[in-house]
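worker-3 :: picked DUF2332 domain-containing protein
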Amino acid sequence: MNDVLSNFQMFLDREASKSSPLYAALTALVSRQLQESGPIGQVLAAAAQRQRIPNLLFAAVQRALFDEPQDDLAAYYPSLGGSRAPDDELAAVFTRFVLEHREPIEQALATRETQTNEALRAAQLFPAFGWAQACTRRPLGLIEVGTSAGLLLHVDRYAYAYTFEDGREFAAGEASAEGVPVLRCAVDGPPEQAAKALGPFVGKELRVASRVGLDLNPLDPADPQARAWLEALVWPEHAERRARLRAALDHAARRPVRLRKGDALRILPDAVEGVAANAIPCVFVSNSLAHWTPEGRTALVALVRRLGARRDLVCIVKEGYASGLGLFTDRPDDPPAGDRRPYEVLGAAVFLGGREQLFRLGSAGLHGVNLHWAPAPVG
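worker-3 :: tokens ->
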């Protein structure tokens, strides 16, 4: 269980400690139990190795708690109206709840995935798609790999506000997604330079010819159980994210897009072939490839290259460098200077006339809240 313990400690240091006091306390608790062979460690041990991760465990517990809102544990969860801060009693209350509801929690660990569908990520992808449209001068046929409920396929329909360090703001997007709040994204860097770089790619209409999502288990945005699972993946204190998710799911249910079930390595060629001849396939993936096996990631890159050799194509990746753009550069452990921040890298592989070009478009913060935009070729 050493790898599992390492995952929890990394989650505490890099994520939970920054924005979730409850999950920070629970991560420390689980880490202790892993070291001491405690009961929660035994629950995790029953899951497959790849499922023994913090986000999945805490989502499984929160999902079970949604069905037991009167339980004492709910007092610690703002998502259930609780306001009790983590204290000395939390460990006993949490452990008791997990053991009393072990069956549904273990079932979720065995069958569910961390399919977090954060609509705010669209604010980071929107300029990348605008850039792809400018590069190719054609409408885009959007194909999302790891689509979850497909919220990012509505990227052109949202309203955006890009805010710069001097307080200026760019408004962008179609704003036709009724009920979805404006997606606000802070743009890092010197304001004048940042505004000049971003403006051309968010200020024009994004032409989307088609949209399709691929997933091993796509989630229906109208299905109550799917919605409950997606809400369980939102951290308890993140009320704004939860409200945005609900609004985006409501919109997606009203304007359904095509979601295909299957292994992307098998069904991606057909999805690319289905894009109209006057459009360019734009394959994109965000916050998904880290959950793939190394062999699967390598196979996806090889497939994209084969498809790009036969047809003009753009592939946008928003992932950690090693599991995203680095796979295309063949230097997955050697990111360029400036990419060592705890950000994901926004990158692109462009195939025109069978020729491949790689670009680093910028860096993207967690959950879509900020963006450093600086498109440049990868040498």
